[in-house]
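Q: What does the assembled structure look like for these inputs?
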Amino acid sequence: MTETSTHFKVPVGSSEGAACLGPDGSVAHVTRTLQMINGRWKLPILFRLYAEPSMRTSQLKRDMPGISQKMLTQHLRELERSRLIERRDFGEQPPRVEYKLTEVGRALMPVLTAAKEFSIRHAA
Amino acid sequence: MTETSTHFKVPVGSSEGAACLGPDGSVAHVTRTLQMINGRWKLPILFRLYAEPSMRTSQLKRDMPGISQKMLTQHLRELERSRLIERRDFGEQPPRVEYKLTEVGRALMPVLTAAKEFSIRHAA
DNA sequence: CCGTATCCCAATAGATACTG
DNA sequence: CAGTATCTATTGGGATACGG
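A:
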């Protein structure tokens, strides 16, 4: 099990009243998006890949002082599973692996920007 | 300590390279917003208060089967501290307390909607 | 009705060591 | 260089009991 699930699961069952309120079935959808970026280093990774066309594993690691190999790989895998980033293994020796944002990953940026704007304007 | 902080803290120090990438100092800001809604029952609560002008504690509890008194109160406190909701104690006997979204809370909705739209369009 | 206090468990993240 | 495997520490969430 290399999955990081957090507590951001949809409240209980499927047709729980809890999961389907707001405009419509909002909670579950919002939760799904938040899941994707929930993790200590997900945003730092995403923003880096947003700024650069692509980055090697070691570049990412150097850019984020404090992250461990384990957490880096783990979060990269999760972001990959979420289809936000793409992994490319060049099959060279020594190993060369690069990551880049997918179209989906780029489509997420407006959401993050909205969250950022909100923080700037309304946060204490 | 009644604070629920989760791991969504900004990566390490203050002027860490990690915290300030993207368009500008995005990570920290986005993180701050995500903090506010990070918690098992935060979204369910917010969406309920979005649908209703105000709700009593017991109403919220009834509407969210599975939530415990403890978690309800805890999350309500945190949302209050984040200025997303307002608490009103009528000082009656038996107790009567009502919660409602603040203006800030309403301002958050577009962000949640953006996240929801993203999920609908791009999630597997 | 509304809130607090405990105890417990599950899930994450960090540190460290090891492999191709 | 890139990734895996362990072990540990922390913490958020659930259950339960109690109090104003």
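Residues 103-122 of chain A form the longest helix (20 residues).
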